Amino acid sequence: MFAVKTVVLPGPDDLNEDKIDPMIDLSVEIDLLRRKRNAMILAHYYQSEEIQDLADFVGDSFDLSRRAMVADAEVIVFCGVRFMGEVAKIVNPSKTVLIPDADASCSLEESCRPEAFRLFRKKHPDHFAVTYINCSAEVKSISDVIVTSSNAEMILKQLPMNRPILFAPDRHLGNYLIKKSGRDITLWPGSCIVHEQFSERELVKLRIRHERALIVAHPECSEGILKYADHIGSTKSILDYVLASKAHEFIIATEPHIIHQMRKMAPNKVFIIALGMNGSCDCAKCPFMEKNTLSKIYLCLLNNAPRIELSEDLLQDALKPLQCMFDMSVNTNVSSNKS
Ligand code: 13P
Ligand code: SF4
Question: Residue 7's CB: how many other CB atoms inside 10 A?
């Protein structure tokens, strides 16, 4: 096994949350440290409103990876989940990549351990391994091409028709791709705990109550949700759709923190969060994304940890399928927001 993968944790003498002076203004202190350390803060749309507002760039997983690749700051603070920080390190290895919380995992990454994925590949030696970006650096390093929800369909179209495909780790996105492409795809049985919990029954009730509302959904949702959707796409594509649409009301079947950008950019439109099995929208919040806080961003900049460190071999091997993704996504423009 070549892969050496580490998140360097804060040391025993480093400042921790209990010791932060309660009188300081964290946003101001983060800004000072950001300048002092020549740092760039990248945030996913599922981060809290306050984190999105202080970030230099907010985006979906694909745009964020491209932003990380061209970042010229010395330090990248990645506010998302751990695999996103790993991607930043893989595509721009000379930078220091900090993540506010080393435990910010993802149920998809957890469902797909490298040893098990290696066996899966061995069982299907003729298959081309198309792997969703929501996985560890090790799983990436033994994949043929990485995709995100914004480019998976486009990349599948470019693969030779005579090659059967393995798709891991999200079975709902995989099923959606089978429907769209008609390809022979063997699926890994993983799922997102956030998108899987949306209830079809509650969605139908919401649609009856808001009969003019359009439904938008992330392809990590189950088929029972996707079949009602007027638009299916990545977080960025959902945002673009609601902004461009003439409709006034939308039911949002993805993590609700994205509504922050929707409200900022379209304050007169109405956004309704799709509900879970228990009739509540609380379980739609990603518990991994929610681990990041302003105090942890402040601390990681101060302590230079948690910090992503990957071995040279792992960096090189995981870059190959990511580079393949970038090469096959040449016609997509990087969106710009703040910077
Ligand atoms: P996006 O590619 O839309 O950013 O999705 C990432 C993610 O984790 C969805 O749950
Ligand atoms: Fe992973 Fe789902 Fe959270 Fe996205 S929303 S990071 S797929 S658990």
Answer: 19
